[in-house]
Predict the 3D structure of the following.
Amino acid sequence: MNDDDLKQLWRMQPASSAPLPEEVLRKRASKFQRRVALRNLIEVLAAVLAVAGFSRYLWLYPQPLIRLGSVLIILAAAFVVYQLYRRASSRPLPGAESALPCRDFHRAELVRQRDALRSVWLWYIGPFLPGMAVFRWGVETQLDASAPFARGWQANLLIAGVLLAIAILNLYAARKMQRQIDRLDAEPN
């Protein structure tokens, strides 16, 4: 055996890895929880803007379909904020005295967030569909062509594209989260 053979043999050996220290896991979990809290804050602010905008439409447009669509969208925004809190809120890390190790907490949070992202079509996109359909129906049938809203299939296609993009981006994020879960599972305890 020559020197190159020994180096190759050494490189092919499985890497022995020590378990991650609790402090490293705690930092990862803390960073993840901060990102979740920031994401949720942005989502809540977007919901507040949607409620404000569609509340304004309630007063500006007397057309029944536009008003009904606006009310449905406002209700959907409230429902989504509630679901965001219920399904995907940021939770505080367990204290040092907790019986739940940080690793188990972090993994459980990753799973919970992954599941919320995978089901976003149901609790995030779905509630807006009836209101958007009624609102768009009102725009198409009850407003004249000079109204400030975009009309026609292009506008509807753009809205559908945005909703599809939201679903795809959330599925992509769920896959990334699954890879984090897999990496955590592969690390020794």
